[in-house]
Amino acid sequence: MATETPVSSPLTTSARRSRTVAGTTARAASPKRRRRNDLWLALVFIAPASIGFAAFLLWPTLRGIYLSFTTYNLLTPPVFTGLQNYQRLLQDSIFWHSMAVTVEYVLLNIGFQTVLALFIAVMMHRLTKSTFVRGIVLAPYLVSNVVAALIWLWILDTQLGIGNEVLNAIGVGRIPFLQSDVWGIPTIAFINVWRNVGYTALLIFAGLQALPEQVYEAGRIDGASEWNMFWGITVPLLRPILSLVLIITVIGSFQVFDTVAITTQGGPANATNVVQNYIYNLAFGRFQFGYASAVSVALLVVLSIITVIQYRLSRSGESDLD
Fold it and tell me: For 290-319, what is the mean pLDDT?
């Protein structure tokens, strides 16, 4: 008996094709819909940080740039004066003295802090990886700038400070660390090195942990000493981390204020009057907010130029591991 082969109708074939095309379109649209949903989710997560950035950083920066072209004292509306504040800035001897004092502090702080942090990080990496040791190293960083400044103000007090009592007991004599134009800036740099060196050391320590051990094993096989491997392997491979540390340290050092405000208030005779302290005195001591904003903008320009130059010279975007 002959078997009859079913013949599909043109309508049935067309319906199947339509369902196939519809399924393919749905599958193709699904990733796009997912990406769109992920975009909205990402916007929700970054919204709080974006609002905070706009409210507490972007808007004050733009407002400060505007005020730098005005005369403003909080009591009357700002009066636009053009480049008058910047012309005054170029002739302001106190500003240039404050900039020189700040540069001196930055050089001392960066030099001692970077070298000491690198030494501590290498010692932790080579000798111990104890969490307790890391906690001890980081402990001063957990103290606020104000508290750290008050502690060292009491320790280094010329008459009653325990530091000067010890120096006097061993025959060195009392040293006016925070009352001298010679010792003022080095002492402030020492206080901030004591507080921040642990954090800097942990940043470098994290970079050391990312270095491959095979490179050091090859160096030992070739007979290289620890000193040679440090300069020939560790330092070149740490260039991106060291560049990051230097950029952060430079920016933070130029913005030093808390320690100076607590310990010396810029004295004696402007010997420790760093730029941030000068800006504070102009704004909240003399109510010259327009001129204080101009000094702030000048400091922003200086920091931007230094950061760009430092980034270029250090080649922080490159690594010898690549």
Answer: 86
pLDDT above 90 covers what percent of the chain?
A: 57
Output phi, psi for 82, to 5 deg.
70, -135
Q: What letter does residue 70 receive in the DSSP assignment?
A: E
Give tens-digit pLDDT for 72-81. Answer: 998 899 999 9
Assess contact for 102 and 257: CB atoms under 8 A. no
Q: Which among 61, 58, 92, 62 has a CA at the least distance from the CA of 288?
A: 92
Tokens of 136: 């001890």
180 Cβ contact list (under 8 Å, min separation 6): 268, 271
User: Which own/partner contact pairs does 84-91 have at CB distance under 8 Å and 24+ positions apart?
Assistant: 85/290, 85/291, 85/293, 85/294, 86/294, 86/298, 88/291, 88/294, 89/291, 89/294, 89/295, 89/298
Structure tokens at 229: 């491997």
- CB atoms < 10 A from the CB of 219, how many? 17
User: DSSP letter string over 153-196?
Assistant: HHHT-TTT-HHHHHHHHTTS----TTT-TTTHHHHHHHHHHHHH
Angle at which helix 239-254 crosses helix 93-127, to 10 degrees, equals 140
